[in-house]
Amino acid sequence: MELSELRQMSPADLRIKERETREEIFRLRLKLRTNQLDNPANYRKARRELARILTLIGEKTAGAGAAQGSGDAAAD
């Protein structure tokens, strides 16, 4: 999935995508260990996609927290 598509998703949708990607990584790792995986690069791609998703979740939650936090600082 493209990064631009991931950026447009809400944090709740990103959490769902994270769960799906983790399940995919589990299945791929199982196939990799039992020598049933045709293309090992798919495992690496899935891990990188999970990292992108987690990074975006962190950015969105930190951005929401920073927006709330800056309002409190201005009130003091």
Detailed description of the structure:
- This protein is mainly alpha-helical and 76 residues long.
- The protein has a single domain (3-70), classed as Helix Hairpins.
- It is built from 3 helices and no strands.
- Helix 2 (11-33) packs antiparallel against helix 3 (41-75).
- The longest helix has 35 residues, at 41-75.
- The chain is elongated and about 50 Å long.
- It starts with a helix and ends with a helix.
- The model has no long low-confidence stretch (mean pLDDT 89).
Write the layout of secondary structure elements.
Elements: H1 3-7, H2 11-33, H3 41-75
Helix pairs in contact: 2-3
Tell me which CATH architecture applies here.
Answer: Orthogonal Bundle
Low-confidence stretches: none
Largest sheet: none
Per CATH, the class reads Mainly Alpha
Q: Approximately how much beta-strand content do the residues carry?
A: under 5%
Average pLDDT across residues? Answer: 89
CATH topology label: Helix Hairpins
Q: Would you count the extended β strands for me? A: 0
Order of helices and strands: HHH
How far apart, in Å, are the first and last alpha carbons? 43 Å
Q: Indicate how many domains the architecture comprises.
A: 1
Radius of gyration from the alpha-carbon trace, in angstroms: 17 Å
Q: Tell me, what's the shape? A: elongated
Secondary structure category: mainly alpha
